[in-house]
From TrEMBL:
The lineage of its organism: Eukaryota, Metazoa, Chordata, Craniata, Vertebrata. Keywords: DNA-binding, Metal-binding, Nucleus, Repressor, Transcription, Transcription regulation, Zinc, Zinc-finger. This is Forkhead box P4. Residues 206-216 have a biased composition (Low complexity). It is found in: Nucleus. GO terms for molecular function: DNA-binding transcription repressor activity, RNA polymerase II-specific; RNA polymerase II cis-regulatory region sequence-specific DNA binding; zinc ion binding. Its main location: nucleus. Coiled coil: none annotated. Residues 239-250 have a biased composition (Basic and acidic residues). Gene3D superfamilies: 1.20.5.340, Winged helix-like DNA-binding domain superfamily/Winged helix DNA-binding domain (1.10.10.10). It holds the Pfam family FOXP-CC. Residues 1-10, 560-570 have a biased composition (Polar residues). It comes from Bubo bubo (Eurasian eagle-owl).
Length: 622
DNA sequence: GTTATTGTAAACAAGC
DNA sequence: CGCTTGTTTACAATAA
């Protein structure tokens, strides 16, 4: 019966027309154009999927595979034959993990130890393509592995702190040094090994860099790639503005410098710009070779961005440790438009008419889900790509507070629906405040502040918020002197929650079979902590879970940990459930100075949070 | 198949 | 009158 109605039936007659249009745009990222229940049509998840499959064009590598002495495995098969998701279904998590690691190690060995691969003249070397295949396979394997880790997180079994996800990928720049990359370029230039893959994936670079920079998403899900955020941003990060600004400069070209072509692997000498342009149009025209080179460059950029994100995080941790304030903004990894959630939540918790922060303005900050997303977000985020109903709601070991602590920057920037129920989010918003109470408008502000997703379609989700507030007994409306505030009856909230893992032997058993004890222990403790403590999880819990033996956790999780310290440490949880605020606490902006350091870096780039308190240009959808 | 949960839409009322 | 806030109902989708 459900299949018979391709569209979501709306009971309302006349209103459904206009709303459906808006709704369509809203749900497009989740349901895609292929209809409900088709994961392949969900752009974000497919993006990750394609990261693991399409980037390296395994089909083309398949033909070159005999040159590589890699054991036959499903991982090396064409994605047309077995997708990573299918592979994950076929293999158990430890099997998959081991498989990926094994193949990664083998390929690394091949790439790094084979002297022939270091041939400085790869143009004539028959193994050039092989190395390209290696590196692409490496990328694929690492992305697969990363996705697998995310999958583990989605199951709530692994607590992946920020930066952790980048660790496997970071081995790549070490294995593929810049010289290798240059060599790689020459190889691509010499041959056209990825010709098939390009045709296969339909990479279209005709629209210049805008498409090329977001090709990963474009080839997977044109809707989302062409679906700008309200502020005009693309959901994918686009360094286009940089290049375009270069191109607008007369007499210069981003690919031309010091009298030579800076096209990767080219270095052709050009006397002047005109000659260079001619050279560019002739030697680097739109063809398979150029697109292949562009693809490789994308991968390089992606790797560097991941590296940058990690290094930035490390810098923040270092500066936090040294009690320093970052001396300079981070224009790349830290969009200027972002606001410290903790700081803003403090400053806006009670004092209106502030509250609504600016949405990221396209003029100043390209959104960077790629940069922060894959390396930071836990895989529960991936739920948004699936059916709408797949909300986390903290049922399985993924505490919303820790999830948000780890990924709040991602949610703040990426137009991705948070995998939590409205009730969970509302509760989180309320509990984040020192008084454990918020007005409705403040809850709205929290939503828009914390999630880019909620910066549009305000009518829809605000209605849902109000609906949830009224519907759930756990939300208690308390009349205040200045109006009404909403509080959380934690007892009621806990009551409505389903049983935890402790009461689900089957789940525990599955987890034991699927993961090591460490992860189980971590998630178990996390679930216990989440269920036991009504308020935010303690950093101890986070550290404990992070210290699981399965995944290494270094100091990279300091940001999330410190942030939780801020959330809890500065404002110890109150034992009494509700404390009706009698008057607004307006002078709390500086009550948590550490938060400026502890939350992510963009805080420091914001001179004043109140600058972001204008009304959002929401409902931009036409 | 049933039930509970959740999201969405909408009607409605009260207050400002 | 318009907006916000709050309540309620209805329905669909999903998971248990």
């Amino acid at each position: 019966l459900r299949e018979s109605s391709p569209q979501r039936t709306s009971p309302a007659g006349p209103a459904s027309g206009c709303c459906s249009g808006e709704l369509e745009g809203q749900r497009c990222p989740e349901e895609g154009g292929g209809g409900r229940g088709q994961p392949s049509s969900c752009p974000p998840c497919c993006f990750l999927l394609q990261q693991a499959t399409g980037l390296s064009s395994p089909s083309s590598n398949e033909g070159k595979q005999p040159a590589v002495q890699v054991p036959v495995s499903v991982a090396m098969m064409s994605p047309q034959m077995i997708t990573p998701q299918q592979m994950q279904q076929i293999l158990s998590p430890p099997q998959l993990q081991a498989l990926l690691q094994q193949q990664q190690a083998i390929m690394l060995q091949q790439v790094t130890l084979d002297p022939a691969e270091l041939d400085p003249f790869p143009l004539e070397h028959p193994l050039g393509n092989k190395q390209l295949a290696f590196q692409q396979q490496l990328l694929q394997m690492q992305q697969l592995q990363q996705q697998h880790l995310l999958n583990l997180q989605r199951q709530g079994l692994v607590s992946l702190p920020p930066g952790q996800g980048t660790v496997p990928l970071q081995t790549l720049p070490q294995a593929v040094c810049p010289s290798d990359l240059q060599q790689l370029w020459k190889e691509v230039t010499a041959a056209q090994p990825v010709e098939d893959s390009i045709k296969q994936e339909g990479l279209d670079l005709t629209t210049n860099t805008s498409n090329s920079t977001s090709f990963s998403a474009a080839k997977v899900s044109p809707p989302i790639s062409h679906h700008p955020l309200p502020n005009g941003q693309s959901t994918m990060h686009t360094p286009r503005r940089d290049s375009s600004s270069h191109e607008e400069t007369p007499g210069s070209h981003p690919l031309y410098g010091h009298g030579e072509c800076k096209w990767p692997g080219c270095e052709t000498l050009c006397e002047d710009l005109g000659q260079f342009v001619k050279h560019l149009n002739t030697e680097h025209a739109l063809d398979d070779r150029s697109t292949a080179q562009c693809r490789v460059q994308m991968q390089v950029v992606q790797q560097l961005e991941i590296q940058l994100a990690k290094e930035s995080e490390r810098l923040q941790a270092m500066m936090a440790h040294l009690h320093m304030r970052p001396s300079e903004p981070k224009p790349f990894s830290q969009p200027l438009n972002l606001v410290s959630s903790a700081t803003l939540s403090k400053s806006t918790s009670d004092t209106f008419p502030d509250g609504l922060p600016h949405p990221p303005t396209s003029a100043t900050a390209p959104i960077t889900p790629l940069r922060q997303g894959p390396s930071v977000i836990s895989s529960s985020t991936l739920h948004n790509m699936g059916p709408i109903r797949r909300r986390n709601s903290e049922k399985f070991c993924t505490p919303i507070s820790s999830e948000l602590a780890q990924n709040h920057e991602f949610y703040k920037n990426a137009d991705v629906r948070p995998p939590f129920t409205y009730a969970s989010l509302i509760r989180q918003a309320i509990l984040e405040t020192p008084d454990r109470q918020l007005t409705l408008n403040e809850i709205y502000n929290w939503f828009t502040r914390m999630f880019a997703y909620f910066r549009r379609n305000t009518a829809t989700w605000k209605n849902a918020v109000r609906h949830n507030l009224s519907l759930h007994k756990c939300f208690v409306r308390v009349e205040n002197v200045k109006g009404a505030v909403w509080t959380v009856d934690e007892h009621e909230y806990q009551k409505r929650r389903p049983p935890k893992m402790t009461g689900s032997p089957t789940l525990v058993k599955n987890m034991i079979s699927g993961l090591g004890y460490g992860a189980l222990n971590a998630s178990y403790q996390a679930a216990l902590a989440e269920s036991s403590f009504p308020l935010l999880n303690s950093p101890t819990m986070i550290n404990t879970s992070s210290a699981s033996g399965m995944l290494h956790v270094g100091h990279d999780d300091v940001s999330s940990t410190v942030e939780q310290v801020n959330s809890n440490g500065s404002f110890p949880p109150r034992s009494h459930p509700v404390h009706v605020k009698e008057e607004p606490a307006e002078a709390e902006d500086d009550s948590r100075p550490v938060s400026l350091m502890a939350t992510t870096n963009q805080n420091v780039t914001i001179p004043d949070d109140r600058d972001l308190e204008e009304e959002l240009p929401v409902e931009d959808l036409s």
